[in-house]
Amino acid sequence: MQDRLSFPEKLLEAVEARRDEVTELTRELIRFPTVNPPGEAYTPCAEFIGDYLKRHGFGVEYIRGEGAPGDTDLYPRTNVIARFDGRVPGPTVHFNSHIDVVEAGEGWTLDPFAGVVKNGRVYGRGACDMKGGLASSIVAALAFMQVCPDFPGAIEISGTVDEESGGFGGVAHLAKLGYFSKPKVDHVIIPEPLNKERICLGHRGVWWAEIETRGEMAHGSMPFLGDCAVRHMGAVLQAFEDELFPALDAKRTVMPVVPEGARRSTMNINSIHGGQTDDFRPGLPSPNVPDRCRVTIDRRFLLEEKIEDVKGEIVSILDRLKRDRNRFDYEIRDLMEVQPTMTERDAPVVKAVAQGIMALFDREPDYVISPGTYDQKHVARLGHLYDCIAYGPGILDLAHRPDEWVGIDDMVDAAKVMAIGLNVLLRGGAR
């Protein structure tokens, strides 16, 4: 019966036969509590992936993100890259997944690191973001290699760290070393959870910055003798409410960002810190006028905006307050900036994955842009490789939430799409 199947059916059947494997592999990955920060269990998780792929003939390399934020001997930023070379030279397809997850947080009804299987789903922190996607990419590669043992080119699979905190110890570090540049790599697929019938072409831009207002310390019973930095920050936040947020809300983009609310400029106040007891909670209050107050802002901007204008909107408000408000002074520090990115729809990797979606679901894919950044930013800005997309199983809205899950059917379907994409990219769609 197997010999009478057509080529696409053989490939899909090879993936389907690994249904239990993708389920168990996802469960095993979830059981590594790779929580970031601080960066726990990175090395054992990377070694598990490396050992798994070694057994299937991949060459494996471990690269530590030395010098990256958070990298210490206690919490080394350990990345793994596995490579399988085909029988003849050809292009290289690279599947990149981050292995770090955010903290579990409250509200779980299941153990977040047990990898519980229930009602056709695998539950756990990182199930959809993105250990299910990593498992799907591995199964897709193994099924393709089984059906097409004479393929040209090479397949790479990486498990990288720190995506949840910017990716600097992971993909950024590797991109600086040339691991995401031609001629080493030609096509990159990042199995982020964007839903199995969508292709994510890129993301909005981001600027993270820290604003600090300054004051003068005095006794809390005589605040008139000091200068309250928190009150100065209150004036900043009020100006943002009155002027900046309405202006951002009016901006729109042609980028197909999902969800709909993210098709505009946004800014979040990530954190605010002020006063002498801020870092010692729970503790006794300090009877002091605070002389420092800091906020971290998370500004997401559009393809139509220039980064200098994005920054200028903030600085103009701060400068006006400095002119108009008695004793107001501030400092602003850049933390991170990333330009928006959007891969062209006619790029080879886009067309290859689109063929897989059309073959499996008999419909055109939805082409979307992510509201937040992911590691494609480093592939583009440091690797200068633009044939890169995000495609993977899982529902984006479940990421970082309690009782996070990924559907087993979705993982299998996504692996089938990836396997077809591999065939198009490495064999030209040969049957």
Automatic annotation (TrEMBL):
Belongs to the peptidase M20A family. GO terms for molecular function: succinyl-diaminopimelate desuccinylase activity. Its cofactor is Co(2+); Zn(2+). NCBIfam families: DapE-ArgE, PRK13013.1. Residues 268-287 are annotated as: Disordered. The keyword Metal-binding applies. Keywords: Cobalt, Hydrolase, Metal-binding, Zinc. InterPro entries: ArgE/DapE, Bact_exopeptidase_dim_dom, Peptidase_M20, Peptidase_M20_dimer, Peptidase_M20A. Gene3D superfamilies: 3.30.70.360, Zn peptidases (3.40.630.10). It is an enzyme of class 3 (hydrolase). Residues 202-323 form the Peptidase M20 dimerisation domain. It comes from Aquamicrobium ahrensii. This is Succinyl-diaminopimelate desuccinylase. Transmembrane segments: none annotated. Its EC number is 3.5.1.18.
